[in-house]
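ping. complex inputs:
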Amino acid sequence: MSKKYAIGIDLGGTNLRVALVSAEGEIVRKIKRSSSEQVFDSLVESIEEVKHGEIAGIGLGVAGIIDRKNGRVFSSPNLRAVEGIDLVHGIQRKFNVPVFLENDANAAALGEKVSGAGKNFESFVLLTLGTGIGGGIIHKGELLDVAAEAGHMSINAEADKCPCGNIGCLENYASARAMIARAVAMLEKGTESILKECCKGSIYKITPEDIYKAALEGDTLSREILREAGKALGVGIANMINVLSPEAIILAGGLIGAWNIYVQEAIREASRRAFKDLFDSVKIIPSSLGDEAGTVGAASLVFMKIEKNTQPRF
Amino acid sequence: MSKKYAIGIDLGGTNLRVALVSAEGEIVRKIKRSSSEQVFDSLVESIEEVKHGEIAGIGLGVAGIIDRKNGRVFSSPNLRAVEGIDLVHGIQRKFNVPVFLENDANAAALGEKVSGAGKNFESFVLLTLGTGIGGGIIHKGELLDVAAEAGHMSINAEADKCPCGNIGCLENYASARAMIARAVAMLEKGTESILKECCKGSIYKITPEDIYKAALEGDTLSREILREAGKALGVGIANMINVLSPEAIILAGGLIGAWNIYVQEAIREASRRAFKDLFDSVKIIPSSLGDEAGTVGAASLVFMKIEKNTQPRF
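pong. complex structure:
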């Protein structure tokens, strides 16, 4: 391949990350800024900032449901600004290189495969555990171009409505949003907890880190919140194991900081639920690229599609 | 390819089906018998009965969790006799042709792809709706060699224990077993229903067909049972859509006879739950090969693996 670098973009609800990445998956330059309503201008500026010489193409990982046929974003609840606009075509015209679009968690899964924790696995499911829960699936060493919205798998069909429209989604029980909502609700009810004293007394500013810290100090409520969320995550992991029987489940996102309580509980619960032989064949491990997985994966998409001679779709 | 035929075997908990199938997926000879505890002898006899001239190989679709690495069946709750025995190697030695092993619902999915309702789809999920619920996944025209145990995805994390060890599995709510259990429980409680008069008064012999017939005659309990089961199926279908975003969901198995109530309810429920854009892109249709899908698919496995030069694994 003549061009050694591609640009990988990770456009989530909160942050925009752009990196210049080698064919081997190494980041040579990168920037991070807040996601903006002016998505297109913000993307163009960031690409220009990072670009250096000729590039093979641009890979775009965007939070949301991807319309692969038309290279658009069907819907992106946390980033409405990208819905319906023709990002791919626009960027392609601007920079005159191939542009490829994927879901952000899918791109992160590919990143982990190329140069992260998934390098030695032929099949794995990546789950991103943050405000929401996303997923990406690698099978026979390749990214499955499917929605992989594992966070919006119902695990309690008759329970709470999810903002996505479904009922009882995994994300409603196992995400940071779920943990914080539960903490606030319990504190409002008057439950005793050292969480009351954190965030200068404003319980509405509690973060998952606060909950984990309080749990390590022995706070009962915080431990329970983490364990309950972990248990729900375990149900989701068991479902993914029973359906996709991967070699590994790779966990990414801010919540894996609470590994010792939250993830351990998830592993315990999944071990009780998944088919024994499938559970015994799966490794449940943390991501190794962390926040870089998305940009690395998006850039890798470019090299892979070009190698396979896949035409960008627009 | 020199050898035009392969033998496809569908070994479920109840029936053993063996067919001689062309490379185009057409059955030229077939037999069906009850599954027997003497699995190996029974297979050998049936193969000899159907075999005609030279064959390219033998494909074996077996109900259960498949150990693809070693060509064995990890576990098969409805057919314990196949667990742990080296069927693949045994049959290969006996007939001196390549033998390939798959899960029965996976084989059925491949059958539908080769010459059934899935022929024109590049990606679909097949769900077999019978005593239990099985699944098979086709992606980019190929069978994913994963467990695809969609029936053992938990949709009610805190509810009823499933015989598989998990809690709240789809199969506990949407299968024939679930419908019958619910009918019996309600009748035992004294619920009014014309089902009481069926099966010569023995409610323990009620079949899904009886329930569907009674529902068509306006029986309230029967309609409710079918609708509730359909609703649960819809939750499972929505989960599969949100995770795998297939072009189609193909429904197979005895229960699709109750399409007008059971499946219609499932489609309605899935439409409320799955991401709208994904639901709008999916077709939910019946299998066209019916009971033949398994043998056709198992035989197709032989042609595909040989074409790809895949070595049988033993």
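Chain B touches chain A at residues 65, 67, 74-75, 123, 135, 139, 144, 146-150, 152-158, 164-168, 232, 235, 238-239, 241-246, 272-278 (CB under 8 Å).
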